[in-house]
Amino acid sequence: MASITSVRGFKDILPEEMSKWHYVEEIARRVFSHFGVKEIRVPLLEKTELFKRGIGEATDIVEKEMYTFLDRGGDYLTLRPEATASVIRAYLEHHLYAKEPLSKLYTMGPMFRRERPQKGRFRQFHQINVEFLGLSDPRIDSELIFMLIHFLYAVGLKDLTLEINSLGCPLCRPAFRDRLTSFLKDKENALCEDCRRRLGTNPLRIFDCKQEGCRETIAGAPLILDYICDDCDSHFKEVQRNLDALNTPYRVNRQMVRGLDYYTRTAFEVTTSALGAQNAVTGGGRYDGLAKLLGGPDIPGIGFAIGVERLISMLPADENFSNVSPDLFIATLGEKARDFAYGLSNRLRASGLIAEMEFSDKGLKNQMKRANKLGCRYTLIIGENELETGKAPLRHMDGGEQEDVALSSPQDLAAILKAGKTDT
Ligand code: HAM
Questions:
Q1: pLDDT tens track for 240-278
Q2: Which end of the chain lies in a sparser environment, N or C, as judged by fewer CB atoms within 10 Å?
């Protein structure tokens, strides 16, 4: 019978890779707690309408990348392509805004987009997502960005570029959009089919097109920064002033637009040359109209999402990110010894130690090799003889020192193993 494989673009994360995931997640939790950011968990499945309204009908995500299906109950449901719309929905649904003036929330988990899979791009991928909701003060923008950069360096990334731009607001963007559309109108033939369509629906997206003709055409286009209103301009200048004060280097990328429609004012991306074509580790920005658009009060917000697979692919491959290795390996010679070791290893585990044992009848040399490979601190060797005398040699794997320990008391053995423990 043919074997069943995973779905294209959906990846298994194997046990050997998990230490990197735990490492990244632990640093995220620690850094976020220092900045007062609290965890929220939202469902993977939402009503399709949430993303259509939140992300925007004329975005690539909503137009062609969502996993949407008709539920048996007659509702259209979608596997979340991002977390922001869901977090805002939960924030509004549970009236979190009534509890505190500024809510700082983070969530981590899988997102789903039916994109063309390639290096660094998957159909199920993971994000670490942060949202600061409640204030439009530019200090909030720079605090969020500062925390993000601090986190990325804390994880150990290097050669990062922070790019920022302002995308204006509903007061100034329409005039820019008209200006851009009329600039592009008589150059329509030079645009790709997608961008010709975008010209009518979402002309700002043309800045992101990778096609040669579109890139050349857009190179001379008017730029949003030259059209933003005075309020947006002074907001953007304050964000920059604060980033300077926080010693956070950035580059203003006047052509940067983002792939989701909810953005207003500050937008940013962190890229790295280490990633090749899919070089964005993080994207984010302010979305002051989103809460209202989703039916709530007019509450401003800003956030970002980090692509965890991309982040992890930048960590050194050979480094051991796990500090968890077994305290004890029980080498066994004979069936009776295995029986005894079975009880002992499980008792030791229940007392908080990590114990492994040998179930096969492999020779001692082979078993010691396995103990070494597992990185065990100690090995206890049990055979018929040891069971008879009630004493067995406990070998320290580092120095090879050996002492006899009594087998009658798992507590005493546990005490010896715990005494030498430095890694927890
Ligand atoms: P985004 O730019 O669509 O923003 O995604 C953020 C990050 O997720 C990207 O920079 C990338 O690292 C990763 N990513 C996106 N698509 C894929 C994929 N197919 N495979 C692997 N990684 C991917 C958002 O999602 C916004 N919700 C961010 C945000 C939060 N804005 C405000 N708050």
A1: 999 999 999 999 999 999 889 999 999 999 998 877 776
A2: N
Return the C-alpha torsion angle 202, 69, 11, 16, nearest 10: 120
256: CA distance to ligand 1 center in Å? Answer: 15
Q: CA 262, CA 167: separation in Å to the nearest integer?
A: 10
Query: What are the pLDDT digits (tens) for 262-320?
Result: 999 999 999 988 777 768 999 999 999 999 999 999 999 999 999 999 999 999 887 77
Report strand pairing: 251-252 vs 301-307.
unpaired
pLDDT digits 0-9 by tens, 330-376: 999 999 999 999 999 999 999 999 999 999 999 999 999 999 999 99
Instruction: Give Dmax over CA atoms of the chain in angstroms.
Output: 95
Taking CA atoms, 135 is separated from 88, 98, 101, 243, 290, in Å, by 14, 13, 7, 18, 13
CA-proximal residue: ligand 1, atom 8 (nearest): 307
Burial of 120 (0-12, 13-18, 19+ CB in 10 A): middle
With a cut of 80, say whether residue 420 has pLDDT above it.
no
86 C-alpha to ligand 1 centroid (Å): 14
Show the beta-strand stretches assigned E in 179-310: 251-252, 264-272, 280-286, 301-307
Strands (E), 202-263: 251-252
Q: Which domains does the chain have, with CATH numbers?
A: 15-172+228-313 (3.30.930.10), 328-418 (3.40.50.800)
Closest to 156 in 3D by CA, of 267, 31, 9, 245: 31
The set of protein residues with a Cβ atom below 6 angstroms from ligand 1 is: 82, 84, 113, 115, 121-122, 125, 127, 129, 131, 259-260, 280-285, 303-305, 307, 309-310
β-strands 378-382, 328-332 pairing: parallel
- Give the residue, by CA position, lying nearest to ligand 1 atom 22: 307
Give nearest CA residue, ligand 1 atom 32: 303
